[in-house]
Amino acid sequence: MILASCEKPAPPDTREADAKVITELEDGWSKVIGTKDAAKFASYYAPDASLYATGLPAMHGAGGISKGLKELMADPNFSSTFKTSGVHVAKSGDLAYSEGTFAQTATDPTSKKKVSEKGNYVTCWMKQADGRWKAVADITAAEPAAQPPTAATKIREAPIRKKKAANRKRSGHQ
User: Fold this and answer.
1) CATH number at residue 34
2) Residue 165 host element (H or E)
3) Is 95 buried (19+), middle (13-18) or exposed (0-12) by CB count in 10 A?
4) Cα separation, 59 vs 138, whole angstroms
5) pLDDT at 12
6) Mean pLDDT, to the nearest integer, of 74-98?
7) What is the value of pTM for the model shown?
8) Closest to 111 (Cα-Cα) out of 138, 141, 82, 145
9) How many domains in the chain?
């Protein structure tokens, strides 16, 4: 007696290989941004992708992203780098996301001074019909700038400083 199954065999698990491909894509993509070639940078995005960058209006579609980045990259002070810290691929093998850190410098439009920011990003990737991976959503989040202590902070911390000083005095450390 022969038993046959109607189930299709599970597709091979390509998550590890796909993660490597996306990491390599991001390494190359990071180098492209240094050339200030907005069209080449935008070529990593799917035609219907969106870019949500800290402090900038949302950009939609590869053409809209290219146009927005061209304006940003025209700034003589513009520079940007990013480094992938992880790539996670869905078991289905058609969706993934990467995460990492970035550093960027540009001219502040209000003060006209050179400003730098660091932060984190998440990029969602989708495998296209031709098998290539393209970014479909790219989101950055800048770390808050260090702020000098305010009067309120100093007032809140005063009892803590007094208590530490009293403890040092009691223990013989001054």
Assistant:
1) 3.10.450.50
2) helix 151-170
3) middle
4) 10
5) 87
6) 96
7) 0.77
8) 145
9) 1
